[in-house]
């Protein structure tokens, strides 16, 4: 059974950092683009960042450029999202996605508050 499992969320003060991890299993994660999306309450899910299968190409939403970095280690079936200078409007549930397969993880909650 294919799955993506996120971890690393939590409560952080404005200006702080978190590193999210996404571990895939049950499918060849290393052959797939992986993206991070976020959703705040009932709002629409928003693309945050994406990385190519070999990790050589990345892209970011404008609202995270310069603050977030996506990376991967295919030997560990893991994709990370390093988030720096977090702000209150970054508060959301963050989901790891294998978009071409339609796989979504259940998400990890990030809350930025003083």
Secondary structure: elements and pairs:
Layout: E1 3-7, E2 10-12, E3 18-25, E4 34-39, E5 46-51, E6 58-60, E7 68-73, E8 78-83, E9 92-98, E10 103-104, E11 108-112
Parallel strand pairs: 2-11
Antiparallel strand pairs: 1-3, 3-8, 4-5, 4-9, 5-6, 7-8, 9-10, 9-11
Could you give the count of β-strands?
Answer: 11
Helix content: under 10%
Give the rounded overall mean pLDDT.
96
Rounded radius of gyration (Å): 13 Å
Distance between the termini: 40 Å
- Which regions have little confidence, pLDDT < 50, spanning 5+ residues? none
Estimate the global geometry from the Cα principal axes.
globular
How many distinct helices? 0
- H/E element order: EEEEEEEEEEE
As a percent range, the share of strand residues is over 45%
For the largest beta-sheet, the strand count, sense and barrel status come to: 7 strands, mixed
Structural class based on helices, strands and sheet pairing = mainly beta
Features of the shown structure:
114 residues; mainly beta; seven-stranded mixed beta sheet; four-stranded antiparallel beta sheet
Q: What does this entry look like structurally?
A:
The chain has 114 residues and is an all-beta fold. It is 0% helix and 50% strand. The protein has strands at residues 3-7, 10-12, 18-25, 34-39, 46-51, 58-60, 68-73, 78-83, 92-98, 103-104, 108-112. Strands 2, 4, 5, 6, 9, 10 and 11 form a seven-stranded mixed β-sheet that branches. The chain is globular, with a radius of gyration of 13 Å.
């Amino acid at each position: 059974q294919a799955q993506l499992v996120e971890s690393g969320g939590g409560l952080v003060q404005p200006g702080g950092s978190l590193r999210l991890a996404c571990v895939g299993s049950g499918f060849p994660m290393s052959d797939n683009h992986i993206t991070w999306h976020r959703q705040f309450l009932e709002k629409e899910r928003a693309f945050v960042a994406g990385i190519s299968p070999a990790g050589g190409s990345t892209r970011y939403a404008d609202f995270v450029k310069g603050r977030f970095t996506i990376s991967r280690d295919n030997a560990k079936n893991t994709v990370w999202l390093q988030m720096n200078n977090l702000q209150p409007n970054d508060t959301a549930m963050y989901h790891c996605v294998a978009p071409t397969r339609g796989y979504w993880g259940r998400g990890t909650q990030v809350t930025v508050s003083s």
